[in-house]
Amino acid sequence: MKKKFIYALALAGLFSVSLKAQTPIYLDDNKPIEERVKDALSRMTLEEKVKLCHAQSKFSSAGVPRLGIPELWMSDGPHGVREEIQWNSWADAGWTNDSCTAFPALTCLAATWNPEMSAIYGKAIGEEARYRKKDVLLGPGVNIYRTPLNGRNFEYMGEDPYLASIMVVPYIKEVQKNGVAACVKHYALNNQELWRGHIDVELSDRALYEIYLPAFKASVIEGGTWSIMGAYNKLHGEHCCHNDLLLNQILKRDWKFDGCVITDWGGAHDTREAALNGLDIEMGSYTNGLTSESEFTYDDYYLATPYRKGLKDGTYPLSTIDDKASRILRMIFRTAMNRQRPWGSFTSEEHYKVARTVAEEGIVLLKNNLVDKKKPALLPIDASKYNKILVVGENASRSLTQGGGSSVLKVKKEVSPLEALQMMYGDKIIHAKGYESGRPMYSHVDEIPTEVVESLRNEAIEKAKEADLVIYVGGLNKNHQQDCEAADRITFGLPFGQNELIEGILKVNPNMVMVLMSGNAVEMPWIKSVPAIVQAWYPGSEAGNALANILCGKINPSGKLPFSFPSKLTDNGAHAFDELSYPGDSIKQIYKEDILVGYRWHDTKKIPALFPFGHGLSYTTFTYGKAVFSTKSMDRKGKIEVTIPVTNTGNIEGKEIIQLYIGDDKCSLLRPLKELKHFDKVTLKPGETQKVKFTITVDDLTFFDDKQYEWIAEPGKFKVYIGSSSTHIHSITEFTLL
Ligand code: GLC
Predict the structure, then answer these.
(1) Which terminus of the chain has a smaller tally of CB atoms within 10 A, N or C?
(2) What is the pLDDT of residues 83-137, one digit of tens each?
(3) How far separated are the first and last CA of the chain, in Å rounded?
């Protein structure tokens, strides 16, 4: 009996070994991904490889059914998982189980200046994408805020390459821990929406390397992003989706990117360039990337039949398809065929808490002046002092997760400011819509009849007369020519007659707390008359709760601006020149402000911003002690430790963002007056002092020399600016690089 048992065991063992031997390497989770890629590639036909390289539907690319390699499913967007879209149409699929959590738009995340917020954000949105069975999340966006008119700035992380570089990395890492690929976009120079499909951007190599590439570089090198989305526009005459300099030379050669380049939808325009210039997956072609479809099949794509024919007749080297297919297989093994990945979760209380926490940390208190010297400032609101609080403005009740373009969301929950303030202050709240903006639409603007405008305005002004306090909730919205994809804003001022409404209310009631919901700076002609202003961004599902918590003082505001608010449009660098600078001549555009983007422009040209980059107030106050330097000179291998004691001199706990800028006055090339190189956000109890530490190395001193085509630091004197914004500077200290 025993012999038989041992014999049976041996047979079973043999059988399993033979089975193991038969299990292909590419299916074996225990094998390194590169071996699996190589094995899968060796089993595929040319046709199967080419099919990987282009869409099979609006939001999916093919797998290899014969080998059991699944297709890749992609979904927008950067601040929430978009509803299911139909197979071959932009229309929604009409599912009833795809209402998601709307997280704050990324300007709000950037305004937290807190990488921990980026980490919890990436984890939560990655869990939602995983739960919705998506393999690629089409976000985050890190295009630099060059002009306040760009319709998509709300999706990005502001004007400074260092802030965007620090804030994008944790988001990517945490999304990808869910086995979902981040797809950082739009690479590169998609800094406006007008003519985005073809505008040929011209700029200096210094501006390219110092301003517009760093956040993408950090996404690849520190973030390890598994995919990148090519931008619609051109650089040096080549579309960015198949641009040899951007993709082959910088991204894949210099940065050693091992992931996939995916087009923006409709961003491919040429088979030869797509074959040779580093594109891996073509999506959305034969559409304008947005709406119109043409009569074609997916096999007509540039990287489909035309490419396959070119491979067969030797026009294109087979090495190109093997590189593309390897990258796509690598992404499939990291995502769709990654059996270790977690299961995700969707619209959980935990996710709502993340949305609220990020919003609370990102909302910026811009102004909080005394109306009357004998009374405290209007914020935080002490409701015991008021009988009637008027909430006025369409953004108090309008859904701001709808519209905006591809980042549109179908949400399970969106608490409006009005709802939250009614919950908080009960029947003290009276309401007036104040203005009307029409339907959230992609390419059209509703004309609002004059009589409607006037009646809404008059009603609001009448109600303001009887109120003790006015909370104005306005700003922009996700309509066409507002904060919306595919078009830019046409004015820097507030739309929908808001300025007249604001002036009318102020005439009858000066006690106004203004809340601006937007992803862009706006002109503020009434700035002197409004005592308190809050920049609340687009906070998502928990918008109202986060805002109410800030206004009532439950949460002490700690956000700081990720971009400058110019007083007037021409104070902004992109608008200081001719049309060729912005918006271009519809064919070409020249970034004439060069490296002087945002505060770099304001500082160097000595044009004060209305609210500067890095500005944000608190309900408490902080003092900065003397900055202590470990040394005042260093060589290239050295470092300088800087310690700054920061004290909370108020009577409530608060968070402060200490900013370190470096200036290189004596450089052989033009450099901005100063540039952000370090920051830290600390929480301080009343009376508490913390010593904030930064380490300066030679990397903080370099600039891109476009003659030597490399980053260099010239010896000599440098200045360290310690500030609580880019203009509120507490100390300037010189040191020498030997
Ligand atoms: C859009 C956007 C891009 C989006 C894609 C898919 O045109 O530019 O950000 O991810 O198409 O919707």
Answers:
(1) N
(2) 999 999 899 999 999 999 999 999 999 999 999 999 999 999 999 999 999 999 9
(3) 85
Residue 374 is predicted with a pLDDT of 86
Provide the annotated active-site residues.
264
Give ∠ CA 106-85-544 in degrees, rounded to 5: 40
DSSP assignment, residue 731? E
Tell which atom from ligand 1 comes closest to the C-alpha of 289: 7
Distance from the alpha carbon of residue 13 to the mean position of ligand 1, in angstroms: 52
- Which atom number of ligand 1 is nearest to the Cα of residue 185? 9
* Sign of the Cα pseudo-torsion (383, 384, 386, 387, in order): positive
Q: What is the DSSP string of 411-467?
A: BS----HHHHHHHHHGGGEEEE---------SS--PPPPHHHHHHHHHHHHHHHHH-
Relative to the CA of 82, which ligand 1 atom is closest?
12
Phi, psi for 373 (deg, rounded to 5): -60, -20
- CA 65 – CA 300 distance, rounded (Å): 21
- The letter for the amino acid at 173 is K
Region label for 432, one of left (φ > 0), alpha (ψ between -120 and 50) or beta (otherwise) = beta
The rounded distance, in Å, linking the Cα atoms of 420 and 183 is 34
Query: Which one-letter DSSP state was computed for residue 103?
Result: P
For residue 65, give every residue at least 6 positions away whose Cβ sits within 8 Å of its Cβ, in sequence order, or none.
none
pLDDT the model gives residue 297: 85
CA of 160 to the centre of ligand 1 (A): 23
Mutate to test the pocket of ligand 1, among 83, 92, 198, 406 (most ligand atoms within 8 A of CB): 406
Which of 192, 241, 265, 286 has the most ligand 1 atoms within 8 A of CB, as the residue to mutate? Answer: 265
Amino acid 30 reads N
Amino acid (1-letter code) at residue 531? P
Q: What is the pLDDT of residue 442?
A: 72
Q: For 152-176, write each residue's pLDDT tens digit.
A: 999 999 999 999 999 999 999 999 9
At 470-511, the pLDDT tens digits run: 999 999 999 999 999 999 999 999 999 999 999 999 999 999
Give CA–CA dist 703/225, Å, rounded: 25
Q: Which residues line ligand 1 (CB under 6 A)?
A: 76, 138, 185, 264-265, 289-290, 406
pLDDT level of residue 286 (50, 70, 90 thresholds): confident
